[in-house]
Amino acid sequence: MRAPVAMRTPMVSARGLSKEYGSGAARVRAVRGLDLDVEAGETVAIIGPSGCGKSTLLYLLGGLERPTAGSLRLVDQPLEQLPEAGLARLRRHALGFVFQAFHLVDELTATENVELPLLLAGASPHRAHKRAADLLRSVGLADRAGHLPSALSGGQRQRVAIARALVNEPAVVLADEPTGNLDSEATTEVLRLFEQLRADGQTLVLVTHDERIAATADRLLTMRDGVLVDETRLSGGSGRSLGAITGLEE
Amino acid sequence: MGRLLLIWRLVRGDITRRRVQSLMLVVMIAATTATLTLSLALHGVTDSPFAHTRAATNGPDVSGLFEPDYHGTAGTLQQFKALRRAPGVIGSSGLFPITELELTYGGHKVRVHAEGRNSNRAAVDQPLLTAGQWTTPDGVVVERSFADALGVHVGDTIHLAGRALDVAGIAVTSAMATSDPLVWLDSSTLLALAGRSEPLWYALNLKLSDPAAAGTFAAAHNTPNAAWLFQSWQEIRADDSTAIADERQLLATGSVLLAIIAVAGIAVMVGGRMAEQTRRVGLLKAIGATPSLVALVLMAENLLLAAMGTIAGLAVGRVVAPALTNPGTSMLGNPGSPSLNANTVGLAAALAAVVAVAATGAPALRGARTSTIRALTDPARPPQRHDGIIDLSARLPVPLLLGLRLIARRPRRAELAIASVAIAVATFIATLMLRHTTVLGVKAAGNILAAAKQNNLDHVGNILSVILVVIAAINLLFTTWATVLDAQRPTALARSLGATPNQITGGLASAQLLPGLIAAIIGIPAGIVLYLAAGENPSQANPPILAMLAVIPATLFAIGILTAIPARIGANRPAAEVLRSE
Amino acid sequence: MGEPRELSDREPLHGYQLRVVQEVLLALLVQSGAHAYELRARLALALGPLADTLNEGQVYVTLGRLETSGLISSQRVERVDRRDRRVYELTEAGRERVLAWFEDVSWPKPAPAEFHLKLVAAAATGLADPVEIVDRQRHQLLSGLREAQRAALAEPAGAVAGLLLEGVVLRLQADLRWLEACARFWSTAEGRP
Predict the structure, then answer these.
(1) Looking at the domain assignment, is residue B323 inside a domain?
(2) Does the beta carbon of B488 lie under 8 angstroms from any beta carbon of chain A?
(3) Is there a smaller number of Cβ atoms within 10 Å at the N or the C end of chain A?
(4) What is the number of structural domains in chain B?
């Protein structure tokens, strides 16, 4: 299903990753010498206060920004030497990106939005359409496939965006504040999807300040001022300690 | 006072934040104003000065020439002279001896008509000096258009029939059409120079009690076999008009072309600007501005930019106009007109105001009516959807896919682009036709005035062409630039989904080239119509078909380059800037 | 409202406590009498996965206390092969108690005073680092959030138990946000006298 990768090689590997903006007094060091490994099938959540650089980190991982320093490997390919065209091609099969603002194309239906990455990669319209329909079904939007984004709720739009991110069977899905623009109910819809993806073995890197999204992760990284200050492996999830938090036992 | 300050702050903030768009608007208005200024300047020049000259020189109602050695003619000089007292005549001057002499100056050898005068003021037809002074025994006065053709000035020395004479002055007259070289000399000098070898004629200028009846008078006295020939002032004027017809035509055509292009360019630009403004309205309302304040802010900003553009345009026009009008006025013998007068400034200011109001009006009105959130979240018009195009584009290679969809999402902008490019192409075509008009087919070669006239026509034609091409190029540049700017978000998204920079550049280029092709095809007949509408004689048109057809690929090439450069630059910058929501 | 406390006045060392098991049992008897095992089944329906943590014995103990307080009455019913022989019925007093419960708007107190004072005490005594305490608590709450969230998502949409779990999730989220603020505060407060 996913690109075959050696068991021990991480899907994403960053060393000394840095990104600076501006110069002189206005210089901002958004990411400072960061190291990160994400294994295949892992769900990693990066949390932190606003302005800590977590979104910048994600855009660096996705090749949408160029680092000022450091090295980055995606499915075992070094990114820093790749020209823009090479990055774009890598993105096609290695990455799916989910944005906070959805960034769906307003004048395309849900299906047309989802099939777009396949068309850009050169797939036939027929194959693209079929795959898009399948994905929309799997995210529970089969009955909305022909709707424009303006006719969809926030949660539905983000689900379309997630379907779009999955259409190329990417090795890694990167999500930037995927529930940032969503209310509680829509957040639940998206949460459900991410849990499903996790169960299917998809490698996920999520940037969020929503604790509920963070709680889906296997590994939780805390970022502050451009560096990772904490790493936690969350326990629980088996349902055995529910009573401990509800206090029903006496 | 606080309100004014607030408005000023909002205006200044917006202009500095959107420097490129503001600059584009200013430059477009400047180009348009300059064009309009030149158009008006040229228009002012095309009036024939004949009436003015006639009044200033007390020109004759009837002008007569006595040719005594013409075989088979009847009539003596005395009889000719007696016509001074013919019925209807209230004033006269003459007889003035006229002969043909050879003039040498600066490598030119020309046979000129020389008229003998003295230092007394003639009662009728006293040529008006535009430089220097009247004839002296050693001086000669040269007719103005001939002086321009020869390149001679007051104080230069010419040789007339071998004798060196100083150019004492330069003058104009209405007694003769300006098609033949003419100088005035002291009578005794002339007679000495003429000697026995040159013919000698006599001129008589008459003023009538009824100037309108000059034609009847001339006809009455132009008996067959007469040794003399009378011309009414109306006939002279007609000759003069014919002589300068081509120049006037060229200048008039140029003037109209410039005006049309100026107006068309403005209309396209205003259309593009209005779309930007609607979101601005929403933003202003969202921060608490009332609709009237919003309208004031928009108006102030647009007026400010329009004023800057107008002033710049007037300045450019003032600088460039002499290059057009000076050769123009010398062609027509017009004693120079100012390139900038109250008319021009007034019209330019009016144009600026119209642009400001038009660019402000619709968005402000819409803003006052729609809800704030709608104005903020919806774009001016939401992108359009065309099922057919989306389906079709899915089957095409990626650059065409992107290009077609870019066109389809903003058809209004595509229409504006087509209009813009069509105007540019029409301009090219009209310019080409201008350059190829057969103007001086019949005039004899070797006549220095004709040669000078051809030079002037070429000169003015060249300048006009350059100006028109520059305007067309500016139009083209801004159209392509605006499209690239507008497509920033969709192209950033496409890049994040895996489109390579080449595919993006190809997409942007095809989004421009397809409308460009349509526009180029429309532009050729439009250019021909434009040229004819500017007043040109269809029979004189000699369209260079090959060159005109070559405009299509040339335009497409230009569009391609103009798109590819900003597109390539943008395609290599990180997509993240456009996609970030923070 | 002081009465619930007499049933369970032992503060737990962690988590929230469900103090109103008795009120719920009374309400469950409004429509008709029921055996203890029926009551337990109905309770389980409303609690979903959380019901598994409900001790069998807890229900019996509570029923006994309610009977002692005169809010319910019971009758023995002879059955051949059934363990439970009692049928419980609501008394008038019990009915009034249920109505009063529906009217009541008290809410579990939102102020996390104990934890707050714990941090203050840690800083004052110097025996523990407040920031570390916060981090440990955060970890624990996050794990709890994960648990509750998984359980919530596993519930079919529209199940009433899912609503309870959602409530748990949202409260834990709120608590985590406060802990984030605590972390910020105490990390900069270090070194203050």
Answers:
(1) no
(2) no
(3) N
(4) 2
